[in-house]
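Is this the right way to post structure tokens for a design question? Let me know if I should format differently. Anyway, here goes:
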């Protein structure tokens, strides 16, 4: 089979595209013929040498996939050959990645793909959708009628948070850079969009939600806690999902006097059972068109190195050139 893999960590050009042996389904596993995969920032960190856990040799990159089951291993009863499925959490915690024509995946990380959802949509929704759901439902516990601020409303996770928060009955304030992205953010469902290039975020939040927001969703790697706490209401919750090396100042007094809480999490540490619950809601929202992933472009799997370069430039270099996910397909 063809696969995108590395034999040593480093820059995007370390990714090779070539032949590797076809996988087989071990106990509790299925083999999936991949229809689409998508790129996440964590993929680029691991490829670049982030020492989170030991990597297989060679290491196939990538966490998110969608495709069709072609073989079923011993002990798997809920999946059959021909089932369309999607999943995430590959290439993480020492598991092999998924940027390949065929992948062997533990059945606990696999979810059914609704008949009216494409492989491209399912793959683009995987990690970012589960992350958004975990933050909104399990950590922030967003409720109907509350107001949420989302930093980066057209980003991979941010666009999912905007749509899911609206599906949950919340009022959404989000940021976007420039008029084109602001318009896109409104189409996703944001009630108010702040152009962070030309508008003052604190002033606009005060205008749109005078009492402060109930949830402040931070996507920046270097959070501005002074801004966040000043924009939060009593008993508000702040969600962190990035910034492993960040060491920002923190306004302790204003934070605890308001009775606020801070929630940080990494999606790949959530149990298979919890993530399956997320997937059930994601499938419902995808099928009912209440959530639709933003896809910047679809590329051949053979261009995985270029996709990593684009993602890294967007995430690390802050070039802000992407409007949604990069999706790759083996059969292009």
């Amino acid at each position: 089979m063809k696969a995108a893999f590395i034999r040593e960590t480093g820059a995007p050009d370390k990714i090779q595209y070539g032949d590797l042996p076809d996988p087989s389904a071990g106990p509790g596993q299925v083999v999936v013929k991949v229809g689409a995969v998508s790129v996440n920032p964590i993929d680029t960190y691991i490829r670049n040498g982030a020492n989170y856990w030991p990597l297989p040799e060679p290491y196939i990159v990538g966490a998110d996939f969608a495709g069709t089951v072609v073989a079923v291993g011993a002990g798997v009863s809920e999946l059959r050959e021909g089932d369309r499925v999607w999943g995430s959490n590959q290439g993480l915690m020492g598991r092999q990645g998924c940027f390949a024509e065929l992948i062997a995946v533990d059945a606990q990380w696999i979810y059914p793909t609704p008949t009216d959802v494409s492989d491209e949509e399912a793959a683009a929704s995987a990690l970012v959708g589960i992350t958004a759901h975990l933050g909104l439902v399990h950590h922030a516990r967003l409720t109907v009628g509350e107001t949420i601020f989302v930093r980066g409303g057209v980003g991979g996770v941010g666009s999912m948070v905007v749509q899911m928060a609206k599906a949950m009955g919340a009022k959404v304030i989000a940021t976007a850079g420039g008029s084109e992205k602001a318009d896109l953010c409104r189409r996703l469902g944001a009630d108010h969009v702040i152009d962070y290039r030309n508008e003052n975020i604190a002033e606009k939040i005060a205008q749109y939600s005078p009492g402060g927001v109930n949830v402040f969703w931070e996507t920046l790697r270097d959070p501005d806690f002074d801004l966040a706490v000043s924009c939060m209401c009593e008993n508000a919750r702040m969600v962190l999902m990035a910034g492993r090396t960040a060491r920002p100042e923190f306004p302790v007094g204003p934070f605890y006097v308001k009775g606020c809480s801070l929630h940080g999490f990494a999606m790949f540490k959530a149990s298979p059972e919890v993530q399956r619950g997320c997937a059930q809601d994601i499938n419902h929202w995808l099928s009912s068109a209440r959530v639709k992933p933003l896809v910047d472009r679809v590329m051949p799997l053979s261009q995985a190195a270029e996709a990593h370069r684009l993602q890294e430039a967007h995430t690390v270099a802050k070039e802000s050139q992407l409007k949604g996910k990069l999706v790759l397909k083996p059969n292009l």
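Format looks fine. Someone answered above. Worth noting: The domain at 130-267 is CATH 3.40.50.720 (Rossmann fold). The first helix runs from residue 41 to 47.
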